[in-house]
Amino acid sequence: MELYAAIRRDARAGKSARAIQREYRVSWTTVHKALGSAWPAERKHYPERGSKIDEYREVIDGWLRADLTAPRKQRHTAKRIFDRLREEHQAEVSYSRVD
Questions:
Q1: pTM
Q2: What span, in angstroms and rounded, lies between the C-alpha atoms of 63 and 85?
Q3: Cα 95 to Cα 14: distance, rounded to the nearest angstrom
């Protein structure tokens, strides 16, 4: 809001839109929006969306629970979980989602 007020004040003082853009380091759309309205527009709220790995969470949790009793060297790593998901469930997930 302070930025919008400053832009409107400078525009009333006779500064050009280009000078205001340079001074406040904003785009021309911001300057025009500030001149059109004293209040910034409310931001869009996008709906939450799930991850591709969400449908396999129970399977992965089961593997990790079983690992609690397994010897340390036989526990699942992120790479092994990724490989099992691809092989056993034909999951189309990326490694970065598993990691």
A1: 0.53
A2: 11
A3: 56
Residue among 48, 42, 35 nearest 3 (CA): 35
- Chain-centroid distance of CA 59 in Å reads 26
Q: Is residue 20 part of a domain?
A: yes
Residue found by looking up tokens 């969400």 in the block: 54
**Cα separations in angstroms, 4 against 17, 44, 49, 63, 71:** 13, 19, 33, 54, 62
Task: Please name which of 52, 82, 78, 76 lies closest in space to residue 64, comparing C-alpha atoms.
Answer: 76
Q: Which helix (H) or strand (E) holds 24?
A: helix 17-24
The predicted pLDDT at position 41 comes to 83
Inside any domain, residue 86: yes
Contact 6, 38 (CB under 8 A): no
What's the mean pLDDT in 9-15?
93
Residue found under tokens 């007020």: 5
Domain of 9? 2-36
